[in-house]
């Protein structure tokens, strides 16, 4: 059953966010020099990224994690509640970060709490922790969306992306766990969780991209998408180099539309700041609503607006060379409003509706695939 009240809350929240971001884009394009109050957010960002843990059980070759200077940590359930309580209904909370969220045993409880607070809730996982027990706990927690990172339905390319993982993180085991989770959700629970499969388009992945897409599109998966490799303050050499030096520097949308809460409670205005170089507050000390408009947060938005390279050099950011705002990625303010925003909004409404129907053929394909894969899941 569609929750009309929740969809209305989303429409109102995202509508306000769109208008506010459009005002920022217009002022910047006209070269205006607004008052300092212009850089204060009237509402919390529409997307709140929360990192249940920064520990990970994989070694993706393109990941920024090897460059992370933070200590390993996991967010407590109490600190999670402190972070999300007060976030208005309609905002989107994503459990993700610089680690595998399901390595924190409290993650299902976090998701359940956020749902009770009226938030839209998603999680990004690498799929390796989807044991039968944890799959049930995750489904019963009720996320609106589960995004599973799986670069290629090809053993050699999978190994190239993930540094030849072994055991429960290996190709066969991971694919089998994903299929079991999907089968459990679609045929047993039938909760209508929006399941996405995400592939990072590295040079190794490109030759098998159509093979992977064809595999997932024959199953009851809601969305299969290919994500560009973002700069993330590191260069793994696994994708074509960013061409931002050939483009005029555009205003990044991230500090206006999103915020990231780390496993230690520290908050970053850039969701790609995996080393937590610039901290604008800590949820253990003050509410998130205050943190997003702290002096440090306002200073960063102002520096972005005026393209203050000295400011970014001082805090260790390389915003001028980042590819997030580039034409290829499209997360500059205007690009986001015209491109990603309507797509994201549409996907969120689809996730919230949770009323997708799947053809008998896709359901039968899933049953067969899950059954064939079950041999790789002995005891896990």
Automatic annotation (TrEMBL):
Keywords: 4Fe-4S, Iron, Iron-sulfur, Metal-binding, S-adenosyl-L-methionine
Domain Radical SAM core: 42-258
CDD domains in alphabetical order: Radical_SAM, SPASM
Keyword Iron-sulfur annotated: yes
Domain of life assignment: Bacteria
Cofactor(s) for this UniProt protein: [4Fe-4S] cluster
Single GO term (MF): catalytic activity
Name of the molecule in the record: Radical SAM protein
Species assigned in the record: Solidesulfovibrio carbinolicus
Lineage of the species this protein comes from: Bacteria, Pseudomonadati, Thermodesulfobacteriota, Desulfovibrionia, Desulfovibrionales
């Amino acid at each position: 059953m569609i929750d009309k009240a929740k969809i209305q809350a989303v429409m109102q929240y995202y509508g306000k966010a769109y208008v506010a971001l459009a005002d920022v884009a217009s002022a910047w394009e006209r070269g205006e020099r607004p008052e300092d109050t212009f850089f204060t957010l009237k509402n919390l960002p529409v997307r709140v990224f929360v990192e249940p843990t920064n520990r990970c059980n994989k070694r993706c070759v393109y990941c920024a994690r090897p460059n992370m200077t933070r200590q390993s940590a996991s967010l407590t359930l109490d600190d999670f509640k402190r972070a999300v309580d007060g976030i208005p209904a309609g905002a989107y909370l994503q459990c993700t970060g610089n680690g595998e969220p399901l390595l924190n045993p409290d993650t299902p409880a976090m998701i359940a709490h956020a749902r009770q607070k009226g938030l839209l809730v998603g999680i990004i996982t690498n799929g390796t922790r989807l044991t039968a027990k944890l799959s049930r706990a995750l489904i019963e927690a009720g996320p609106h969306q589960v995004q599973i990172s799986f670069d290629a339905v090809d053993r050699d390319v999978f190994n190239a992306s993930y540094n030849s993982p072994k055991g429960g993180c290996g190709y066969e085991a991971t694919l089998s766990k994903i299929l079991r989770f999907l089968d459990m959700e679609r045929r047993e629970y039938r909760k209508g969780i929006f399941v996405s499969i995400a592939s990072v388009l590295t040079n190794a992945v490109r030759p098998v991209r159509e093979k992977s897409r064809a595999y997932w599109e024959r199953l009851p998966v809601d969305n299969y998408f290919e994500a560009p490799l973002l700069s993330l303050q590191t260069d793994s050499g696994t994708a074509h180099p960013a061409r931002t030096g050939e483009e005029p520097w555009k205003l990044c949308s991230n500090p206006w539309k999103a915020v990231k809460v780390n496993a230690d409670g520290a908050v970053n205005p850039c969701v790609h700041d995996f080393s937590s170089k610039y901290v604008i507050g800590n949820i253990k000390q003050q509410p998130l609503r205050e943190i997003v408009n702290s002096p440090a947060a306002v200073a960063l938005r102002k520096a972005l607006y005026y393209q203050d390279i000295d400011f970014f050099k001082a805090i260790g950011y390389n915003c001028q060379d980042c590819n997030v705002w580039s034409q290829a990625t499209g997360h500059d303010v205007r690009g986001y409003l015209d491109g990603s925003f309507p797509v994201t909004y549409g996907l969120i409404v689809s996730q919230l509706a949770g009323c997708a129907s799947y053809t008998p053929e896709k359901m039968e394909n899933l049953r067969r695939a899950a059954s064939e894969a079950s041999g790789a899941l002995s005891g896990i």
